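Blackboard transcription, Thursday session:
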Amino acid sequence: MNEMFDKVKKNLIWKSVFRRDYRNTVRDRAAAVFGNVFLHLHPVKVRESAVKLRYTWGMGGITFFAFIILTITGIVLMFYYHPTVSHAYEDMKDLEFQVPYGVISRNLHRWAAHFMVIVVMIHMFRVFMTGSYKAPRQFNWGIGVILLVLTFLLSFTGYLLPWDQLGFWAITVGTNMGAATPLLGYQGPFSELLHITPYNDVRFALLGGATVGGNALLRSYIWHCIAIPLVAIILMAVHFWRVRKDGGISRPQNN
Amino acid sequence: MNPFIEIITKPDNIAIVIMIVLVSFFMVWAFQQAFQNDKLKATGYAVDGENDTDVDTYKPLVRIELIISLVVMVGLTIWSVWVDAPLEEIANPTITPNPAKAPWYFLGLQELLVYFDPWLAGVVLPSLIIVGLIAIPYIDINPKGNGYYTFSERKYSILTFSFGFFVLWLLLIVIGVFFRGPGWLWYWPWQEWDTQRVVFEPTRDLSTIIGIDSRSWGGFFVGMVAVGGYLVAGMVAPYKYFKKKCPEFLAELGMTRYLITAFLFVTMMAIPIKMILRLVFLIKYVWIIWFVPGGLNF
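(Written on the board underneath:)
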């Protein structure tokens, strides 16, 4: 057995990937973190309390993990999806009946999305209950609030994509709120003063039309797959960076 | 099938059931730890994490992250094998479902449409929620309770946040998902939905109770006094109270911070107040600014 391990490990290829043996020394445990692009988000050492599940509930990490699952399943779904009125719904049917593992890909994507919305709200509740928004983490709480809103918007823009009755009317109801915006929505107060009509108001900008149609579908698709994830990824980078720069996971301050 | 079972096992609603279970669980856990820490502090002991030491990231933290990822992945996989994502008929602009519901996490806001006009329920109030949340760290000057669960050291902030989070956000979502049927009428989960059902509720405006037309100048002034009086009284009364009881707190808070805090709090409490006015006294509008184009009604 050991001989076999030796054969696997003592060759040029293995050594080019892993650089060095892991011998469970302080130095190697540290190197395992800062020598790894994925793990180096973490500091080399953390406070004992930051590892306690009963303190953080792991909710922020679970939210991020849900985001990764959504990215992967989302990419899979993009291979089989055309954001057009004539194809979108048929592509859903194809996912159901033709595409190998199409059903579970879509199921995973939808349930992970609901799950992410739930855990991100619980994450906010935990951060509030432990007073972790207090100095020096005030700014990061604000970033977190924006990420919460982006999570809602990601889910919301994805709702329309199957182009079924459920999504169509949910988006109709949701974007109708835009029409009620004061000054900028055609049904909102003061909008007459700016000569706002259904054809130049906020809702028109959201939908690319006066009703939910092909343009709205394309806009949802681009917001959902590119624009919002891009902003979310940047803000997540800031969020994680600031967790470390503000002194790691919050803990009692008197020592 | 029993309508109650039917409604909680609709594929999308399973997520809401999971949310209720998870949120309740973590609510109990958070408050339990808060009371536990309060007891420790009261008897002079250190709270969780006060005397902790450093541990390696690799492996204690990495291990726990791996385990959680696996548990989440297994859980989501079981959920996805067990329940299929819904797909209704192809989108049809000519057939409006009744009720037409927004995605579930916005149903709290849709529920507010019963009590407020869309510009308030759909635009102004959500914007204030976001602004208010971001403002929290800047208006809460209490340095205590940073980094551990506690209740006794932060009673007011925790009660306010919990009211907003559990009642105004989550409870309204649950009502929107499970208790609203055709025509956005109230249905108990065991009641059959009836699309023919009409409920006629003769609503009125505040000023019509004392016999003044709400769309006249008289009605305008009555409404202005009511809304303005509520805002001013709601912001001045706590000021007077703190001035008398703990002036040093008020001095530390400062005028700007006090005004923002009081405004956000008074606005938040206006939501349950308007709900009671509407549900108990059948008042639709408190204040109608009828001469504004498009209507600016509270």
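Lecturer's comment: The first strand of chain A starts at residue 45 and ends at 47.
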